[in-house]
Write a structure and sequence with these properties.
heterodimer; A: about 220 residues; Recoverin, domain 1; two-stranded antiparallel sheet; 4 strands; B: about 850 residues; mainly alpha; myristate (chain A); protein kinase inhibitor (chain A); metal-binding (chain A); cell projection (chain A)
Chain lengths: ~220, ~850
């Protein structure tokens, strides 16, 4: 027992450094990872899409996409993976780590930036640094896709209105021949200033093992 | 409703009746003075008036209320009033009695709190709130009682006839943080929402604990120390759970009841807001009757029903409920503070014991701090987002005591508790200290500690959208990572709620169309519409209606709008459109820019409401068959379908005319028909194609392109409309009414408007209309004012080729490619 403990800790050490998770959390997530992948080394889109709890999520596609997005791996790469390993899985998850009392102001700021970047990347599907109206519309459409017919029609209008809002708040003195191509990251940051991202975008990664009790549900 | 009922009822009631049928009537009295006949309600009404006036006076000067919170000022005002009453009567006739407070003043405040409760925030922090409310309050009660008792034993406050149990009783009534005081003070401070909900939620929920503690210790005091054994204590603990959870459950049931009821009040819309208040009050009274926690009951009633009743009821009813809720709550709050002040000016209740009073003050402060810090320390080990140190300080400092404590203190039984008056005066001192002193210092403290404030701005649409994305992301990540967390639970609850509760409690018609994002969108639209109307009225609506430039914009905008939704209308409108876009390139500089800007500003909204409104108000007064009738259940004037239709058609027609005539403006007025006719026929294809390309562009690439033209009037540089206005003015066409311009196209163009009119006939009821129209209320109507940026897209396009096309336009397309206006019968020429 003791030997395996140290071994796994050693194995997880660099993951811990990279992602900031604790050993227990990593172990839990690894279990979950194996469960999702069916004990394979890597996980594919299908694996994630088959999670039953996700079935009702309107933006499922975008979220799953984020897992396979190279931009979310902090390595300045673009493009997307076909399959991701545990490390990539963890990296994506690490965006959702909650801040602790010990986190300093700068760390908070970086966390905030990362979280925002994650959301931004989710919308910026073509990775050109801006969320164009086209992309944003698609996002809103998906978001409202569970609202029935009204969602389809309303989504467009809402996306447009939201886009105009962004344009008007960020570029109040635009020259007439300027063209607002879309939301840049700076603007995105600016708009969502009020959302207190760093204190809200996180979930609880339990130290305790809960996967066993979830087994039946997730495989059913 | 005022605290005077009791005194007056003691006084000579029914005295007034004697004057009516006294046996010794010698003659028929013409006028009699029957003060006693009306005394009670009269005094009540007077006090309400006085309290209202007090608030008005206090609020008149914001320099004062910025420093001293309103509640403190109201109490001080109460001191003065009380002094006056005392000076006149030599006895305090008016005090806040527990009956009045608990039955007539408190319920509406709590109902208001529950109804406007930010549910997500509240339930999200439920754990922490419960810990503070239950354990914190017990801790406060016990520590205060025991410490005072200890000090008493130590001889710190002289000779007092108070036993341990009575100290604990006193501690329990002092323990609860008062919701009224907390709301009053924190509302003005604007701390961040989590902090607010923690303090506020605690103050609401700890009532259950206070009531139980108070009742239990009251019973213990009656029983006497020797009678209390383990069984009684266990009973007390059980009663706590029964009281708290029973009260909440009762409130929940009543909430469901209200929701169900509003499902079927369609035909009695006028009284449906009443149900909410009556049932809320019944929830309160029922809980009181069953000796459950009445406050918890009414809180949960409000919390549960808010979503469903807001969806079920007509929009008017919802605003009625909201508004009435605020009126009642605000009024009660004012009364409570005023009477708290008045109650102090009464010699009979004041018993001074320096040791007791000062020690109480000290202990409640110290123990509050200790309690909050200790509990937060425990909570922070489990909370996802820990509560920071500064927030803890504010939470501790925000432990204001208020009228609830005073009401409970007055309810003490003098026979059992010898020092009741000392307790009352101590309670009053504590209340004054916390509300006035802590209330005043709260704001500087918050500023000094740099507590994170709440964002003052409303959520913008994009934030709302983003919030939603956010929720889904969090849930999904929890799902993927296989954690059962907060979000998971919430998602499951939402799902359940969506599927079952909404199904049961909501009208089927509204179930589909409700969505948070939609509602914000809808609200923004409404707001714009309102500002538009206001703008129109401010500028004098007649002139506004006649302003032809407005019509062009209207028209064009409408065109854009409908091109989104109904392409066929667009087809009909295309020539007008072409005209407008063509016109935009007129290079004549503008003089009337400002005027135009205002028009444009007003323009941003669903113009039909506004025109309609304006028309109803000003234009058609003479013509419409205004049925002045009194009805108790309907208050809308003139809802006759045909009439509305007629008005609408006329509006549209006149609009079209003015539009036409405005277009004519390019050409000299006299020769207009010939000139334009000839030109028209030549250039029509050209204009069309131009328009086609434009609309294609706008439809395809970027929606904002279609905004651009309507917003372009804003840019002084790229501005087009203003120029046109002047140009036309220069051409000498001031009044479209003199333009013989009934054109043959009109019949073709009317159908779309009629179609529109059909939709619009329902617009008298905004909610319906909103439902029908919201989906395709296009964004270009929204928030056009600040959209310089949006102007860019089209302008850039326009300006880019402006130099090139300018000449071409001037040469080839001088007049708009609009249909020629033969001087024929124009009906509806009453502009």
């Amino acid at each position: 027992m003791g030997a395996s403990q140290t071994r796994s800790e050693h194995k997880y050490q660099d993951l811990m450094d990279k992602t900031g998770f604790s050993v227990e959390q990593i172990k839990n997530l690894h279990k979950r990872f194996e469960q999702l992948s069916g004990n394979e080394e890597t996980i594919s889109r299908e694996n994630l899409e088959n999670i039953p709890a996700l079935a009702n999520n309107p933006i499922r596609r975008q979220i799953i996409g984020a897992f396979f997005d190279k931009r979310n791996q902090h390595q300045n790469e673009v493009g997307s993976f076909e399959e991701i390993g545990f490390e990539q899985f963890l990296m994506v998850m690490s965006h959702f780590r909650p801040p602790t009392l010990k986190t300093t102001e700068e760390e908070r700021e970086t966390m905030r930036k990362e979280k925002l970047r994650f959301l931004f990347n989710m919308h910026d599907t073509d990775n050109d640094g801006t969320i164009t109206l086209e992309e944003y519309r698609k996002a809103v459409e998906e978001l409202l896709s569970k609202s029935g017919a009204i969602g389809q029609e309303g989504a467009k209008a809402i996306a447009d209105a939201a886009m105009l809002e962004v344009a008007s708040t960020n570029v109040p003195h635009m020259a007439p021949d300027d063209f607002y191509e879309g939301i840049t990251f700076e603007h995105f940051e600016q708009i969502l200033k009020g959302l207190e991202m760093e204190s809200r975008m996180h979930i609880r990664f339990l130290d305790v093992d809960t996967t066993t009790m979830r087994c039946g549900r997730s495989t059913s | 409703v005022v605290a005077v009922c009791n005194i007056s009822s003691q006084n000579r009631t029914r005295m007034g009746l004697n004057t009516g049928h006294g046996s010794s009537i010698k003659e028929v009295p013409i006028v009699t003075f029957k003060w006693h006949h009306v005394e009670t309600p009269y005094l009540i009404a007077l006090w309400i008036l006085v309290a209202g006036l007090a608030k008005m006076v206090i609020e008149a000067n914001h320099h004062v209320t910025n420093v001293i919170p309103e509640s403190a000022l109201l109490i001080c005002f109460g001191f003065i009033l009380g002094g006056m009453v005392w000076g006149a009567d030599k006895v305090q006739t008016f005090t806040l009695t527990p009956t009045v407070f608990f039955f007539y003043l408190l319920p509406q405040i709590i109902l208001d709190a529950g109804y406007f409760m930010p549910n997500k925030l509240f339930f999200g922090n439920m754990g922490a709130i419960l810990i503070y409310a239950i354990i914190g309050t017990c801790w406060n009660a016990a520590s205060l009682g025991l410490s005072l008792w200890g000090c008493h034993k130590g001889g710190a406050m002289g000779d007092l006839d108070i036993g341990l149990l009575q100290y604990l009783l006193f501690g329990s009534l002092m323990a609860a943080v008062d919701p009224v005081a907390v709301i009053a003070v924190f509302e003005q401070v604007h701390v961040n929402e989590v902090l607010f909900i923690l303090v506020f939620g605690e103050s609401l929920l700890n009532d259950g604990v206070t009531v139980v503690l108070f009742n239990v210790f009251d019973a213990f005091v009656s029983l006497g120390g020797s009678q209390i054994d383990a069984v009684e204590i266990i009973k007390g603990i059980i009663s706590f759970f029964v009281v708290a959870f029973g009260g909440s459950l009762l409130g929940f049931v009543f909430g469901l009841l209200v929701s169900l009821l509003t499902r079927c009040t369609k035909n009695i819309q006028i009284i449906e807001p009443g149900f909410i208040f009556v049932l809320g009050y019944l929830a309160y009274l029922t809980a009181e009757m069953l000796s459950l926690s009445a406050i918890l009951s009414i809180v949960f009633c409000g919390v549960c029903c808010q979503k469903y009743i807001n969806a079920n009821m007509d929009e008017k009813s919802v605003s009625t409920v909201r508004y009435t809720m605020k009126v009642l709550a605000n009024g009660s709050e004012t009364m409570i503070f005023v009477f708290l002040g008045i109650s102090a000016i009464d010699k009979t209740i004041w018993v001074w014991n320096t040791g007791f009073i000062l020690l109480t003050l000290l202990f409640i402060m110290v123990y509050r701090f200790i309690g909050v810090f200790f509990l937060t320390w425990i909570l922070n080990r489990y909370r996802l987002v820990p509560i920071g140190f500064i927030d803890q300080v504010i939470m501790s400092y925000g432990g204001l005591r208020g009228a609830v404590a005073y009401g409970l203190a007055v309810m003490l039984d003098e026979n059992k508790i010898k020092e009741k008056n000392l307790m009352i005066s101590t309670t009053l001192i504590v209340v004054y200290f916390t509300v006035i002193f802590q209330g005043i210092t709260m704001k500087p403290l918050v500023t000094w500690l740099k507590v994170k404030r709440a964002a003052v701005t409303e959520l913008t649409l994009i934030e709302k959208v983003q919030n939603k994305v956010f929720d889904h992301v969090l849930v999904a990540i929890e799902d993927i990572s296989g954690q059962i967390g907060h979000n998971y639970m919430r998602d499951k609850w939402n799902y359940f709620e969506e599927k079952w509760m909404s199904w049961a409690l909501m009208k089927p018609s509204v179930r589909k169309s409700r969505d948070h994002v939609f509602s914000v969108f809808h609200q923004l639209n409404l707001k714009d519409a309102m500002s538009y109307v206001a703008e129109g009225e401010r500028r004098g609506s007649l002139e506004f209606i006649r302003n032809e430039s407005a019509f062009i914009d209207f028209k064009k905008k409408f065109g854009d709008e409908f091109s989104e939704a109904m392409p066929d209308i667009m087809a009909n409108m295309s020539d007008d459109h072409g005209a407008a876009s063509d016109r935009r390139r007129d290079p004549v500089p503008s003089v009337s820019l400002e005027m135009h800007e205002q028009t444009m500003k007003g323009m941003r909204e669903t113009e039909d409401i506004n025109t309609h409104h304006l028309l109803q108000q000003h234009l058609y007064k003479g013509r419409k068959q205004h049925r002045h009738r009194y009805s108790r259940s309907h208050f809308d004037v003139n809802k006759d379908e045909n009439e509305v239709q007629e008005i609408f058609q006329r509006t549209m027609r006149s609009r079209l005319e003015s539009f036409k005539s405005a277009k004519m403006g390019v050409a000299p007025p006299k020769t207009i028909s010939k000139y334009s006719k000839k030109d028209q026929q030549q250039k029509m294809p050209n204009g069309k194609s131009l328009d086609r390309s434009k609309s294609y562009y706008s439809g395809d690439e970027d929606f904002e392109f279609s905004e651009g033209d309507s917003a372009s009037g804003y840019d002084a540089s790229g501005s087009t409309f203003p120029m046109r206005v002047t140009y036309r003015a220069g051409a000498g066409i001031e009044n479209p009414a003199f333009m013989p311009d009934m054109d043959p196209m009109t019949p073709i163009q009317i159908p779309p408007w009629l179609m529109e009119a059909e939709l619009d006939s329902g617009m008298v009821a905004p909610s319906q209309r909103a439902q029908v129209r919201l989906p395709w209320t296009p964004s270009n109507l929204r928030r056009l004012a600040p959209f310089r940026a949006s102007a860019q897209s089209n302008d850039s396009f326009m300006l880019a080729d402006a130099p090139a096309t300018q000449q071409r336009d001037d040469e080839e397309l001088p007049p708009p490619p609009s249909p020629p206006p033969p001087p024929s019968n124009r009906d509806g020429g009453y502009m």
